[in-house]
Design a protein that fits this description.
It is built from three helices and three strands; from the N terminus they run αββαβα. The protein is α+β, with helices and mostly antiparallel strands. The protein has a three-stranded antiparallel beta sheet.
Amino acid sequence: MPKMKTKRAASKRFSVTANGKIKYKKMGMRKKLSKKSKRQKRELNKPGMLSKAEHGKMKVLLPYR
């Protein structure tokens, strides 16, 4: 059986932590930063964690992670 291919777009956007959680960068930190509060920018800078419900979809996109 041939190897499964990793979706390159997904591998650039998501990474797997040591505990197996899937981490991603939140959107909204590129444009119009002057309109956002300091607190909002601070929260957007933190990495987001994918919910357990989404892990099945990510297994298809990132088979070897």
